[in-house]
Amino acid sequence: MAADLKIFRADLHIHTCLSPCADLEMSPQNIVQKSLQKKIDIIGITDHNSSKNAKGVFDAASKANLKIILGMEITTKEEVHLLGYFPSFEALNKFQKFIDKNLEKTKDKRVVENQVIANAKDEVLGFLKVNLFSAVKQPLVKIVEEIHKVGGLALPAHIEREGFGIIGQLGFFPENVKFDGVECYDRKSPLIQDVLEKYTSLTSSDAHRIEEIGKRTTLFKIKEPSFEEFEKALKRIDGRMVII
């Protein structure tokens, strides 16, 4: 079975023009083209608190040799950034309904005009009228539970960062939350060595600008670029693994 495994390069933390802190150039077409230029096999679309541009990027990549992992970067009540990854649009949409119930709407044009919903052809479909800058009105543990309910995977983002990282926000790494892995930028950080002994870790670009895509990537030893294989690599099943 191990002979069937191949190496795939992934950047699983990319924002689109839907995220208010991302450049408007982060359109579906631009993201797909830059990912292909960087020879990336798998990308994760992880806008803040919303998945409205996931389909646009998915459709833009449909004829390209690029796998899309559906995701989201959620800001929890504690202002911890949490990455959720989902096996299908059905699962993602179910989770989005939970998030929508816990986000505040906004009439602030300065926010709305920077939250662009786009299709695969980079055509503007509209603007999202909720405040994606704000935190969801639910705690970390509840959001992780909701991700798992729909068959998703939950990983705290950039855990060694002071701002929005789980250790910086909480002052510790919680042992009572069932994470499926962690994301970090600097695996040598003394803050996270105990965590890395317990969890599979990823590193990603957290790209908000086109030139940032692929700045940091993770190698996966898996059979094919799919959500199922991604999950097996995180859980180190049947020889699948993350290569550090």
How would you explain this protein's 3D organization?
The structure is a single chain. The strands form three sheets. Strands 7-4-3-2-1-10-11 form a seven-stranded mixed beta sheet. Strands 5-6 form a two-stranded antiparallel sheet. The chain has a two-stranded parallel sheet with strand order 8-9. The mean pLDDT is 95. Strand 1, helix 1 and strand 2 form a beta-alpha-beta unit. It starts with 5 loop residues before the first strand and ends with a strand. The chain contains eight helices and eleven strands. With 244 residues, it is of the alpha/beta class. 45% of the residues are buried. Helix 1 packs across helix 2. The protein is globular, with a radius of gyration of 17 Å. 26% of the residues lie in helices and 21% in strands.
List the helices and strands and how they pair.
Blueprint: E1 6-14, H1 28-37, E2 42-45, H2 54-60, E3 67-75, E4 81-86, H3 89-100, H4 109-112, E5 116-118, E6 124-127, H5 140-149, E7 153-156, H6 166-170, E8 182-183, H7 193-198, E9 201-202, E10 218-222, H8 227-235, E11 241-243
Parallel strand pairs: 1-2, 2-3, 8-9
Antiparallel strand pairs: 1-10, 3-4, 4-7, 5-6, 10-11
Helix pairs in contact: 1-2
